[in-house]
Specification:
The structure holds two protein chains of two kinds. By secondary structure, chain A is of the alpha+beta class. Chain A has four helices and five strands. The chains are: A alpha+beta, B alpha+beta.
């Protein structure tokens, strides 16, 4: 039997602006689908990101990974790219995509996943507001299991 | 970015206030009181419930969405909130004339109502009864494979 698998979660907050508009649709269709999120000058949110890493605590340090290291990864990959930015114009990874909670979460997963080398990225949850969020899991796993 | 795409779920929270009384017709008065304690008080009591739902599906490249939140809100309003909010669960929701309206049973009932949402797959329902109690239901195994 291996060491016990533990989940650790770190939370960060960033503020950014965005709007939803698909240039392949008419103005009426855009307004119908996206409602007030289609307002052309955009609006903003305080996003909250929870990042959960799964792993076995190192027998010497007792840590899955050093939280300082995770904090630096989040600073570099997420805060520098997205905090106080306009997601439609200033984040190249989102170019050509509607910056919905689902798409932002997916981009953040893909930025973080290769950077987490101690333990494995297990879940990220991105809140756009306290009542709306998106979760990402490794494909094939979900909340119920850690496989 | 050549890392494998993750599974993405859309999550949404709703709030409703309702009253209930935990009482089983299969138990005596004494047994009801012993099992349910103050939750068995005859005129019931209420909670501010927080309902959290998660749906999976493909992100539509045209909209960036698994499902349009406006459609989801309308569906949850029609199939759950209209009937549950500011109501007595025991008196106003037919299924709880037969079943004890515990939050476990509430999760199961709401799961069965929301799994018919046509635009995405319901993964799980979580209900916070109070800040200290929450319950989750992710469907029966056979339902997950249907």
């Amino acid at each position: 039997m291996g060491l016990p698998m533990v989940l650790l979660t770190r939370k960060i907050e960033f503020s950014a602006s965005h709007f939803y508009h698909n240039p392949n649709l008419s103005a009426e269709e855009n307004s119908l689908i996206f409602g007030k999120c289609n307002n052309p000058h955009g609006h903003g949110h305080n996003y909250t990101l929870e990042v959960t890493v799964a792993g076995e605590p190192d027998p010497v340090t007792g840590m899955v990974l050093d939280l300082k290291e995770l904090k630096e990864i989040l600073e570099r990959e997420v805060m520098k790219r997205m905090d106080h930015r306009h997601l439609n114009y200033e984040v190249p990874e989102l170019a050509g995509q509607i910056p919905t909670c689902e798409n932002i979460a997916r981009v953040i997963w893909q930025l973080l996943e290769p950077r987490i080398t101690k333990g494995k990225l297990h879940r990220i949850r991105l809140y756009e507001s306290p009542d709306l969020f998106a979760d990402c899991y490794r494909n094939g796993a979900n909340a119920a299991g850690m496989n | 970015m050549n890392t494998e795409a993750p599974q993405v779920e859309l999550g949404r929270r709703y709030r409703f206030a309702a009253s209930h009384r935990l009482h089983s017709p299969h138990l005596s008065e004494e047994e009801n009181y012993r099992v349910f304690g103050k939750c068995n008080n005859p005129y019931g009591h209420g909670h501010n419930y927080v309902l959290e739902v998660s749906f999976s599906g493909k992100i539509d490249p045209a909209t960036g969405m698994i499902a349009n939140v406006a459609d989801l809100d309308a569906f949850v309003e029609r199939h759950v909130l209209e009937e549950f909010d500011h109501r007595s669960l025991n008196e106003d929701v037919a299924v709880f004339r037969e079943k004890v309206p515990t939050t476990e049973n509430l999760c199961i009932e709401i799961f069965h109502r929301l799994r018919h949402f046509p635009h995405a797959k319901l993964e799980r329902v979580r209900i916070q009864e109070t800040a200290n109690n929450s319950f989750e239901f992710a469907g029966n195994r056979e339902e997950n494979h249907s």
